[in-house]
Amino acid sequence: MQSFGLAHVEFLAWAALWTVGLSAIAFVGGGLLGFAVALLRVSANPAARLAAIVYIQIVQGTPLLILLFLIYFGVAVIGFTGVPAILAAGAGLTIYASGFLAEIWRGCIQSVPKTQWEAAECLALTRWQRMTRVILPQALRIATPPTVGFLVQIVKNTSLASVVGFVELAQAGKLINNSIFEPFTIFVTVAVFYFALCFPLSTWSRSLERTLNVSRR
Amino acid sequence: MTYQFDFAALLPYWPEFVHGLWLTLQLSAMATVLGFIVGTLCAIGRADGPPAVKWAVAAYVEVIRNTPLLVQIFLVYFGIATLGFRIGANTAAVAALVVNVGAYTCEIVRAGLESVHKAQLEAADCLGLSRVQTYWHVVLRPAVERVYPALTSQYVLLMLASSITSQISAEELTAVANRVQSDTFRSFETYIVVGLLYLLLSFVVRIAFWLVGLGVFVRRRKLGTAL
């Protein structure tokens, strides 16, 4: 029987690239959707606020695993068959990320001091101008460290994309394990790959927290 | 769209769903209690232990927080098996969840410990409290009280994350769902039902934590505010 060697590490390295790609899709997609939901969440319209709250509660109250299964089987129900795994996984992670990012960013928008909102109103800025010129630039500063921190969660959670048949790092580890059964070596190596991806992000998030001088809540 | 929803096909399986729900609750409850103990001990070690302990706890926290739970579960489940011990999937699931949530708890409780003001310790000293009394009444309890909302969120996430243990065939709710959908071919309906059950469960866990908080943090209830 073949034992764990360099070829396997190379296979894992390729899979790690897919993990990075999937994380990027989830972050960009989740960021756009999450930003829209965050704006709805702080809008003046109570119906929009309620819709955003319900959306966030549902996404945060169901496991990502169930979300992925729902999308995977859901697209088949709507009538699309043979959807590539990366789209199903990307869509699931996008929804997951949007629910959490919306809530993080809502906190950041609302933590901009009330006097800033009032001052903008006194200057006769429209609601849109007030948002884009006054509130969001300040919220961005507060939002950067937790957003980078959440990136770590996204990278880690791409490991669940294996359930819809997407071959990323964790799934690659499982495949190798199925053929040579050296679970300890294989999954430690997989963990090292994830650590190499996530640790710089964690460290970056912490140093941003210090340099942007945002105290932890 | 021509799909016909058929939730009735799932009805015969309700005892299995209940059983899965119950196991999910049990797994989460055990992991919560044990994880809280592990995490708090680690936080104390990180804050006031000798340098070697501080370093070890820091390494543990960083490693766990920067690797996926799925990989940790595989490592515990298969890793222990390669060491020659035979443990069940449920035991491995609880062990992996405890190791995982212990690291997060450690970080949260540490933030609480750091928020205790030095003047509080001096005041405790003046009142003649012993070291143990000081630690219990002045440091630990107010610290946990302060970070209780963060802990609640973390343990709700833990309950949701317990779904991942289905990957090593622990027989909890998600694993039941996987089996039922392959029996009935009603995949979409099955996961809708299970998704709703998890949603319900996350509210139940929140309410449970709120009730426990009311009972444990009496002062908070009386003053209406955290310390």
Automatic annotation (TrEMBL), chain A:
GO molecular function per UniProt: transmembrane transporter activity
Domain named ABC transmembrane type-1: residues: 16-205
One GO CC term on file: ATP-binding cassette (ABC) transporter complex
Main location: membrane
Protein's UniProt keywords contain RNA-binding: no
Keywords, ordered alphabetically: Cell membrane, Membrane, Transmembrane, Transmembrane helix, Transport
Superkingdom to which the source organism belongs: Bacteria
Transmembrane segments: 12-40, 52-80, 86-105, 184-204
PROSITE patterns linked to this entry: ABC_TM1
Topology within the bilayer: Multi-pass membrane protein
BP terms from Gene Ontology: amino acid transport
Cross-referenced Pfam families: BPD_transp_1 (PF00528)
Protein localization: Cell inner membrane; Cell membrane
SUPFAM superfamilies with a match to the protein in the record: MetI-like
Family in the record: Belongs to the binding-protein-dependent transport system permease family. HisMQ subfamily.
Protein name: Amino acid ABC transporter permease
UniProtKB/TrEMBL annotation, chain B:
GO MF: transmembrane transporter activity
Keywords carried by this UniProt record: Cell membrane, Membrane, Transmembrane, Transmembrane helix, Transport
Pfam families per the UniProt record, alphabetical: BPD_transp_1
Topology term for the membrane: Multi-pass membrane protein
One of the GO BP terms on file: amino acid transport
Record field: transmembrane: 20-44, 69-89, 191-218
SUPFAM superfamilies: MetI-like (SSF161098)
Compartments (UniProt record): Cell inner membrane; Cell membrane
Keyword Disulfide bond among record annotations: no
Keyword Transmembrane helix: yes
A GO CC term assigned to this protein in UniProt: ATP-binding cassette (ABC) transporter complex
PROSITE patterns: ABC_TM1 (PS50928)
Listed InterPro entries: AA_ABC_transptr_permease_3TM (IPR010065), ArtM/GltK/GlnP/TcyL/YhdX-like (IPR043429), MetI-like (IPR000515), MetI-like_sf (IPR035906)
Domain ABC transmembrane type-1 per the UniProt entry, residue ranges: 21-209
Top-rank lineage group of the source organism: Bacteria
Family: Belongs to the binding-protein-dependent transport system permease family. HisMQ subfamily.
Name of the molecule in the record: Amino acid ABC transporter permease
Origin species: Azospirillum griseum
Lineage, top ranks: Bacteria, Pseudomonadati, Pseudomonadota, Alphaproteobacteria, Rhodospirillales
